[in-house]
Amino acid sequence: MNINELITFKAVVEKKGFSTAAEFLGYSQSNVTKHIKKIEETVGFPLFDRGWKSTLTKEGELFYKEIDNLIDHWKSIRAISEEIAAEQVGEIRIGIIESLAKQLLPQIISWLKTHRPKMNAFFEMGNTQRLTELVQQNELDVAFVGETDSLSSELEFKKIAEDEIVFITLKHHELLNKKTLLLEDILKFPLLYGDKTCLSHQRFIAALQKDKLFSEQKTHYICSNQLLIPDILTDNQIGIVPRSIANNKATNIITLSITKKDFQLVYGAVTKKKEYNYLKNTIDAITELVLH
């Protein structure tokens, strides 16, 4: 039984006959008869007394009283099905690392409000390692993270942007008077950077080890939320953060110019490789939105 058969039944009753209903609907009379038989097979009772008057049975009268509700129900099912097919409903779970959050969140929320107004969105903040694991565990649909060398073969990475690690300090720091700054100069001062899960931490430590400078570190402080680093710098401390974070902060922060240039970061969208993904079009559209 489908909505067309229900509409046919309604027409037969209201047009007072099979032939008039057929003419009204643009069907052949045999098709009208087939529709009525289909309904009767489904419900298990006759709708009409057999005869040329098309008189409703008692069961048919009761069924007719509910016909508008049934048709409305089928229309609702059809509308919901169309929304599902067009990825207009459901939930999307998005992970974003701290350094991208301030830039990407407003764009994504605005796009969802316009193009997916009925879709719920869940946002998870965290570091690259954790968010990538959540995608692999099917707890996130997509994560905007930094590029790593340890990406699982179950996942794919699509580049969306580039960034770099910068060294920041407060105005009037004594290193601002030095024309040429080497990494060794930075190590003479207290350093403030993210924990070992942060890409900036990993890149910085790798650079120190490569140049055999790791043991030259003096005082250093670890902040698990690198978004806070520009706000909590004091005295002669030097903060190590992605440029995207430094650019969003107050004017009392100065970026030091270091001659070493191998502190590049790459950001991208991580998704799980699947034969079928209900949210593929939505994820692709959001990824294109933030691509730059």
UniProtKB/TrEMBL annotation:
Record Pfam families: HTH_1, LysR_substrate
The keyword Hydrolase belongs to this UniProt entry's keyword annotation: no
One GO MF term: transcription cis-regulatory region binding
KW DNA-binding (keyword) present: yes
SUPFAM superfamilies, alphabetized: Periplasmic binding protein-like II, Winged helix' DNA-binding domain
Family: Belongs to the LysR transcriptional regulatory family.
Protein's recorded name: Transcriptional regulator
Organism: Listeria seeligeri FSL N1-067
